[in-house]
Amino acid sequence: DPETAKLSCPATAAFIRSLPKERGWRTPFLYKYQNFWCQPREIQAIINLQTHFKAHRSDIIIATIPKSGTTWLKALLYATLNRGRYEIRGGGGFQSHPLLFSNSHDLVPFLEYKLYANGQIPDLGVFDSPRIFATHVPYPALPGSVKTSGAKVVYLCRNPLDTFISSWHFIKNVRHDSLGDFTMDRAFDMFCRGVVGFGPFWEHMLGYWKQSIANPNRVLFLKYEDMKDDVVPVIEKLAEFLGMGFSPEEEAAGVAAEIANLCSFETQKELEVNKTGKSISGFENWSLFRKGEVGDWVNHLSPEMGDKMRQVVVEKLAGSGLTF
Ligand code: A3P
């Protein structure tokens, strides 16, 4: 596998080659590491993350499975947490806010794609407290200190049918031609079997779901569909969870609605930085803003495929209380 040959640590490369593998979505292979599927570069980063990361009690960790709304949640959390730093003038909104000039992935770094990428061990002392980081790593594989430090975790979950369609379009944009054809049928089959980055998706969701029930003050579980329905109450819930609920003055000034506008798909997609810029791992920012809708899967999957995936979802989530 040419991807393992590119890793900076030969011992890690050899270890990865010993793991179970399947054909990948945007790399030749995905490997099963600690019960989830991952690309070689990600595994190297996650091993370093697990070994070196020391969470602080004040840390906030955003966790998602890819294509479930990470870009949006990063923006919302950053804007909510830093709202005191950027004035709202005359109801005109956050006119000089960093989210108008930077993609949220550049304001809230991924642990495995940025800070621990390419064999790096970052100096995390440079971050102001509270630090906000993001990850796609499933709950059981998070560094131990995240679980024991009292750090807060915000998980965002999305209907798997829409997540699949979002992933499918994203992969079409970023997959290298040399990897050969990758049909919708093949991707669909892999997704339903759980073979997708950081999947199986049901294990990913259930890991965080169970923790949010057992430790509601430490793990907040959000749904993309609820945010699309009305994001303002979700922003208020997020602020409460972070221990910084909106004051009566902020409520009167409509700060949560301003945050919603600043972070909305419509605002963010039209920004220059998101039309022409690049952020995480060299991805073009525009590719992170496709449609931003609930239920777009009906435009791409046959009714039979919809039934099949819904059946997988119902079966795998049965008894958990988590539904879509
Ligand atoms: P679609 O492909 O269905 O449009 P992630 O950020 O985890 O990569 O997820 C990407 C998905 O979130 C894409 O879904 C994208 O359009 C959507 N998205 C990005 N920014 C959004 C926003 N501000 N509001 C709603 N959805 C957003």
UniProtKB/TrEMBL annotation:
<comment type="similarity">
    <text>Belongs to the sulfotransferase 1 family.</text>
</comment>
<dbReference type="GO" id="GO:0008146">
    <property type="term" value="F:sulfotransferase activity"/>
</dbReference>
<feature type="domain" description="Sulfotransferase">
    <location>
        <begin position="58"/>
        <end position="321"/>
    </location>
</feature>
<protein>
    <recommendedName>
        <fullName>Sulfotransferase</fullName>
        <ecNumber>2.8.2.-</ecNumber>
    </recommendedName>
</protein>
<dbReference type="InterPro" id="IPR027417">
    <property type="entry name" value="P-loop_NTPase"/>
</dbReference>
<keyword id="KW-0808">Transferase</keyword>
<dbReference type="Pfam" id="PF00685">
    <property type="entry name" value="Sulfotransfer_1"/>
</dbReference>
<dbReference type="InterPro" id="IPR000863">
    <property type="entry name" value="Sulfotransferase_dom"/>
</dbReference>
